[in-house]
Design brief:
It is built from 5 helices and no strands. The two termini are about 30 Å apart. The chain has about 120 residues and is mainly alpha-helical.
Length: about 120
Amino acid sequence: MSPQHGETVGDGPLIPRPDRTPGALRAACAIVAPQLLATYDQAKDQALAEAVEHGSLKPVHVYLNHWAALIEIERHPEKAKAYHRAEYLAHVATEPDEARGHLSTASAIYRAAAKAVLAE
């Protein structure tokens, strides 16, 4: 059985970083964030449809980069916990400055993850 976010696995990732391919990212998503599989599949289908419509692979590259960053966050339980907490707190914030602060935290985590997967 693979560890879930609530289980202690130390500071290391739950799984190795997957390749930036649709199949590898989906397989990783199934392990670290199975609740996101339907959203992953919808994003892939939308990216492929946009690629065909526009005659460009750019939508596919954007989808792959985005999901690689999300999986990078989810591979690290403490980062994932902080990311989801910041998103939640931004959503329930009653003051704009409070929401901005939480969104800034979530954005910083996402940017660091995106940078990590693009640097490989």
